[in-house]
């Protein structure tokens, strides 16, 4: 019998992360749950153990704190049963750029970019050595949309997409699967935590629908999964335009329109 890899999920105490935990447990995977709220994760863990005969460990960590990130990195390096990392923990923010203070900006960047990058870096060498493993990074369609007026959050999610695409190119030839998942508005606590009244926003996707679609992309080994994108050809066109732009960049000379007359 093949042993399924253990899945370490960050932000597993609520929303998308807790739903991933339920879905992976129902597929028979053991889990390591990471977030700050230990009691909430213990509750979820107890339910999953009861329902699914799976092993569930709880690893409390504040991923904006370097020492806590280091403990999770250590677990990822040393626990060889862990074969899937879901980098899901994240936070949004309300208000425009001029309303953000430095500490709030730093928290968003630490949680949404530094932590997932460090956790991926902790596990990637072991996965590459083994020739297997998967890293799932939760981005957002906001990363495409400076128009949404969430510049720091959107930039952090653009980073997640870029990082995922870079890791996909580097690691897939070594047998490691990297997936970026880009949800749009999904009904979770993220809105309330950011001080945004979700009732004032257009209708959103249900969290189970989002995670089931993301897992559909995972099973098909998609590099980028965008559950709310209805016309898949739009993504292919964007990628095609990007490749076309790269083909027209020539580093030895400025473009004609910038040359002195
Ligand atoms: N819901 C949406 O509309 C969308 C969400 N996303 C992304 O999905 C991901 C999950 O968000 P979602 O489920 O919606 O939101 P939730 O607020 O429900 O979940 C966020 C999770 O992250 C954890 N978390 C927050 N701060 C920290 C921290 N400092 N250290 C460790 N864990 C932390 C929370 O747990 P705890 O408080 O216990 O630490 C919680 O488990 C995020 O990356 C978000 O950006 C992307 C697009 C749309
Ligand atoms: C707060 C948001 O904007 C949301 N989580 C998203 O990424 O769509």
TrEMBL record:
<dbReference type="InterPro" id="IPR036291">
    <property type="entry name" value="NAD(P)-bd_dom_sf"/>
</dbReference>
<feature type="domain" description="Ketoreductase">
    <location>
        <begin position="5"/>
        <end position="186"/>
    </location>
</feature>
<comment type="function">
    <text>NADP-dependent dehydrogenase with broad substrate specificity acting on 3-hydroxy acids. Catalyzes the NADP-dependent oxidation of L-allo-threonine to L-2-amino-3-keto-butyrate, which is spontaneously decarboxylated into aminoacetone. Also acts on D-threonine, L-serine, D-serine, D-3-hydroxyisobutyrate, L-3-hydroxyisobutyrate, D-glycerate and L-glycerate. Able to catalyze the reduction of the malonic semialdehyde to 3-hydroxypropionic acid.</text>
</comment>
<dbReference type="Pfam" id="PF00106">
    <property type="entry name" value="adh_short"/>
</dbReference>
<comment type="similarity">
    <text>Belongs to the short-chain dehydrogenases/reductases (SDR) family.</text>
</comment>
<dbReference type="InterPro" id="IPR020904">
    <property type="entry name" value="Sc_DH/Rdtase_CS"/>
</dbReference>
<dbReference type="InterPro" id="IPR057326">
    <property type="entry name" value="KR_dom"/>
</dbReference>
<dbReference type="GO" id="GO:0016491">
    <property type="term" value="F:oxidoreductase activity"/>
</dbReference>
<protein>
    <recommendedName>
        <fullName>NADP-dependent 3-hydroxy acid dehydrogenase YdfG</fullName>
        <ecNumber>1.1.1.298</ecNumber>
        <ecNumber>1.1.1.381</ecNumber>
    </recommendedName>
</protein>
<keyword id="KW-0560">Oxidoreductase</keyword>
<dbReference type="InterPro" id="IPR002347">
    <property type="entry name" value="SDR_fam"/>
</dbReference>
